[in-house]
Amino acid sequence: MSLTADQIRQVAHLARLELKPEMTDAYARQLSNIMAMVGQLSQADTSNVLPMAHPLDMYQRLRLDAVTEPNEREAFQTIAPATENGLYLVPKVLD
Q1: Could you give phi then psi for residue 89, rounded to 5 degrees?
Q2: Other C-beta atoms within 10 Å of 9: how many?
């Protein structure tokens, strides 16, 4: 796929990039080369490739789901401006 100078200017405008007029042709060639490489990748046979959630064959180490901090809700709610039934009361901001 070959990009025109007008397409390059339009992409630069949409991306809010400053594009010097003398660089338009160079960018058009470079982006056209990138698009050609993407086109080659889309022709690769991936019928025997399984989808992956992550490119590395690793598992994320997770911490144990255990309580590590004491429950201090009562202490925090004693300094709160307004509470009710263990909940913090806040002013209504939407009607």
Answers
A1: -100, 130
A2: 15
User: Encoding tokens for residue 94?
Assistant: 């939407």
The tokens describing 73, both together, are: 């809700």
DSSP 51: P
Return d(Cα 75, Cα 57) in angstroms, integer. Answer: 46
Cα gap 21→49, rounded to integer Å: 44
What is the crossing angle of helices 5-14 and 24-42, to 10°?
A: 90
Contacts with 19 (C-beta within 8 Å, 6 or more apart), sequence order: 8, 9, 12, 27
pLDDT in tens, the chain (95 residues): 788 889 999 999 999 999 999 999 999 999 999 999 999 988 899 899 888 877 887 777 888 999 999 999 999 999 999 999 999 999 989 87
Q: Where are the alpha helices (DSSP H) in the chain?
A: 5-14, 24-42, 73-78
